[in-house]
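Continuing the series of single-chain predictions for the mutant panel. This is the parent chain; the variants come on the following pages.
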Amino acid sequence: MPSNLPEPTYSGTLVVAATVDIDAPIEKVWEILLNCPKYKEWNPFMRSQVITDEHKTPLQDQTPAAGTYLLMQTHVPPTMDDSAATSTVFEQIIAVDTEKHRLAWKNCFPEWLLRAECWQALSTNGQGKTVYELREVLSGVGAYAIKLLLADKIRKSFEEMAEGLNAYAEK
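Parent structure:
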């Protein structure tokens, strides 16, 4: 089955991806992906997602929209234990495509330092399941350090995020 992820617009030093088949309707899974305040209920990697403006001020409407920003608290390695240390990540949402079921954001660092673009996409397979795909492409000088120090932990984080989404959607 072909991927529903768009082709990357640049090559990366590090590409991290995860895929899982979910036994739930595509619209249910899409609603879960767009419900940022509930990420903490199922996501061991992205423990908190808050939609903000460019100054990190939370918006009243917490629905992702292109041009808004995401302030995330992440666990690397992933865990549902909120007493574990988190890292803060600030990203700009670049795509919310309800027709193609795609959601994407990019980091806010200068691109020479770290360029990172994360895409999530949903599609259906021939067996009536929803296919969830997640991919992040990292480039720039900072990507080399991330690859050296964190690549395996980030891969595990993506895999556990996909599995968490699967378990939550199939409830």
